[in-house]
Amino acid sequence: MAQNRRQFLTIAGALSAGWLMKGSMFASVKSPIKAIAFDAFPIFDPHPVFTLCETLFPGKGAELSNAWRTRQFEYTWLRSMLQRYADFWQVTENSLIFAAKLAKVDLTAEKRDQLMHSYLELKTWPDVPPALKKLKDAGVRLIFLSNFSPAMLNANIKNSALGDIFEQALSTDEAKTYKPDPRAYTLGINTLKLKKEEIMFVAFASWDAVGAKSFGYPTYWMNRLNLPQEELNSTPDATGAGMADLLSLLHL
Fold first, then answer.
1. What is the pLDDT of residue 7?
2. CA-to-CA distance for 180 and 145, rounded, in angstroms?
3. Which of 50, 99, 154, 159 lies at a C-alpha separation of 20 to 30 Å from 129?
4. Strand 123-124 relative to strand 44-45: parallel, antiparallel, unpaired?
5. Rounded to the nearest 5°, which phi and psi values hold at 20?
6. Which of 176, 146, 69, 60 lies closest to 107, judged by CA?
7. What is the dihedral of CA 185, 224, 31, 162, to 10 degrees?
8. What is the pLDDT of residue 31?
9. What residues in the chain have per-residue pLDDT under 50?
10. Range 8-12 contact pairs with CB under 8 angstroms and sequence separation of 24 or more
């Protein structure tokens, strides 16, 4: 326990002082980081879903999966703005049906069910389990803060044996909206009972990093796909390629 406290104080001191990483910094952080809120995809690898698209629709998988992924998030944003909420499971199915029509593939009920079920069978990226253990051992509180529905989050947490690692699996379903709506990010504060400056948000998508940063969370963009940053006049506090860069940021 004493060792955990020393590690935590090292993290808190490094972040509260502010320092550089890959051209970004936590210079604005005034409070020690006490918890990390993760989006789902820095933890769970979605590639098996896209692989299944190609398996079921040879030669059309990339087109289908790209349209499906894009429409998923467009639908969350539209539903938030229109105040016509549906949970992320329904959004995912609606998006798949649209994407199949766009890609001109025959989405039978069986194939639709296979693709939908693949979102309940995700596994972690290889670098995740050891990194989460280091964070947990250092005394950092860990939660999810994801657009995934509760059923999607819980199924994948169970698949990956992460139940003892995460303190809470927060779905934006609780707020009946989606990120980047501030009401979604507020769930982290309400659950952890901490100041926003004490909670680091780890995003998978650049737009989510922008949303969290605008809300006021110290933000790390885990850019696993090596994508360009969004042109939204906002940058995350730090950017890296995976969990190793996050641990390095935290001096672990």
1. 46
2. 11
3. 50
4. antiparallel
5. -85, 150
6. 60
7. 70
8. 58
9. 1-29
10. 8/138, 8/139, 8/140, 10/251, 11/138, 11/140, 11/250, 11/251, 11/252
Task: Walk me through the domains of the chain, giving residue ranges and CATH numbers.
Answer: 2-44+122-249 (3.40.50.1000), 47-118 (1.10.150.240)
Phi/psi at 237 (5° precision) = -70, -30
Question: 37 exposed, middle or buried (CB, 10 Å; 0-12, 13-18, 19+)?
Answer: buried
Locate 93 and state its tokens. 């199915």
Burial degree of 71 (CB within 10 A; 0-12, 13-18, 19+): buried
> And the tokens for 77?
């944003």
According to the model, what pLDDT value does residue 32 have?
86
Taking alpha carbons only, the member of 34, 244, 48 closest to residue 160 is 48
CB burial of residue 22 (10 Å; 0-12, 13-18, 19+): middle
**CA 20, 124, 247 angle in degrees (round to 5)?**
20
| Burial of residue 212, with CB atoms counted within 10 A of its CB: 0-12 exposed, 13-18 middle, 19 or more buried | buried
Locate 73 and state its tokens. 């998030």
Give the torsion sign (CA, 126, 130, 133, 134). negative
Q: Which of 39, 87, 181, 245 is catalytic?
A: 39
- Examine the residue annotation and report whether 39 is marked as an active-site residue of this protein: yes
